[in-house]
Amino acid sequence: MVSFTNVIFVFVLLIVHTEGKGHLKNKDDIRDTVQKLFDTIRNMQATRDTVAIPPFKYAEFRGVYESDVKLYFHGSPVESAMRYGFGIWDNNMFATAWVTSCLLEAYHYGNAPKPSEEQIMMSIEFMYKNYHNKNLNYTNSIMAFWPQLYDEGYQAYVSTPVNLLAMFNSTYLIDWDTVYQELDKAGLTEIATTIQHLLRTREGYAHVFHIPPDFDDTSVNLGLGSLLKDLITEFPQSSVLWQSKNSNLSSVFNGLKHYAYRPNGGDRRVNTIDTRTYFYMRRFLENATMENKSVALVTTWVQDLVDIKTEYFKGIITPSNVNNVDITVSANALFGITNSVLTGLVTTEVLDDPEIEQIYVNTSTMIAFQIHTNFSGRPDLALTYYPSVMEFYWFVSRTYAQLQRRHRATGLPHEVMYTVMSTLEEALRTTMTEDVIKQAVYNGTEEAYYDDFLGDGDKDENNKSIRFGEDRLYTTGMAINALITTWTYYDDNTGHLHWHSDTPDGVKKTVSAAVTFLNQHILSGEYEPWNAFFSGSFKGHGTSWSEYPANRYEFFNGTKITDIHHYYGGETIRGMEGVVNETWYQEELKARHSPIDFHGFNRDPEYFPFWCSEAYTYVISMLALSTYDNIA
């Protein structure tokens, strides 16, 4: 007979083993979930082109993954219902590039199934077909968010969100007076009022669609190419196809140099920035100025204040006419530069260019500064187009992880990379980690989740707050990815991830609890698999360029505008030039009653457009679960 003591001893060993590795049953559950997610994502890719018949069917391009434009209605039960009722399929490049990148990373660093070459190649063909900058007379890898189609009126290639434009055009064919009458009869006056407002602003939205190419899609494409280069033996056809479609990568680095924000210089082409950027960025800029250091940072748009004066009339227009710095774009540029060098997609000599080196170092230093200062107190402005903080954290951690991986294996190929690695490490392992752990919401003792803002701003018929947690799955997956990517390293010899020896217990506990929640709920149907991976820069009070001071206000022809409180719009430039005296700036803030603090996106009743990709939620969840499963 086995003694009672021996039974207890074996039981204790099992507990200890489970604490370090995770529940064995849970590991099996995770693998089952990962397979189901993989199958779900594969079925969400369009396999053929379809024609739009709005509002019944929208155009889909072969190779694209699902992504919808929604409006963030929130508040009353009617507004909540409208949020669910509005959605337009969007053929943007960004979502598909990210889904494809995550499929590769989940296979390489996790235990996810291998995507087929056909699946990857369809996405590459989709991105190449219409998203390279066609207005340049040479081969390039400058990418656009929307397809660029030729416009006879402008005599240029113009960003063309085909489904959004088709929907807008269809609104002119409807007898809205009859619709309003029927809505009023049904007691749905609130919906009628909202429709009237949307119709009044549709021309403004159509104007915003004319965006230039950008350094975010450009950088994400570069990052994807570097992942394929790293996995060329596993995906030879896809890697060769990508490289054949991107044969002039110098165009990316030349573009980064030409359009970098340089506030300390006298070149008025690039020393002026969006007023919202200056508001959150000014402390960083002031510190650099006091240290007598020049600054060069990655911008969002591939357009400067010389370009705008001609391209404006060709339908290629930066929103508000002045460039900005979005730190999520900065994070993706950092990864693109880093991994393209580490994988040999471009030569190490790229970093010998003093301008690229400065942009590389300054951008990483700025990112670390924003992490340490809680985005200078204004995440709504710093994360201009990408409101998810957890997504930003993960984007930054990806660069750090690749630097760490090479550093552990053979050392870094360029000295400046050690500087960037050290800068990111300090920010990620302290402030970022503390923030992610602090934000975890425990559902009992075994599960933890994260919310952002979608679905958490509604009230019921009794005016009681409701939290639907519509981005809970997405945000939880991103939080897991941020922590795992920061605190593990990949061993090329074993194919496993390992916790760094100094990983805090709190990190492991948080990751385990969040993985348990995500594995339990990602496919349960209890929560919407929504996200706000992209949004308009205007998201209500406090997010308009007109609410912040400007020291440069002029027409395109250079004539200064003296009435600083009148907004002419159109052919004007209004922004912050150089680095100004803080006393003057504070006086201007007070004079125009500029909003200083951010109170969350649910506090303001304004609705705004956001882009949601359920495929993106599923793939980042698959990445989180599969990498956790691959920790040895």
UniProtKB/TrEMBL annotation:
Domain of life per record: Eukaryota
Signal peptide, first to last residue: 1-20
Key words of the record: Signal
Protein name in the entry: Uncharacterized protein
Organism, scientific name: Pinctada imbricata
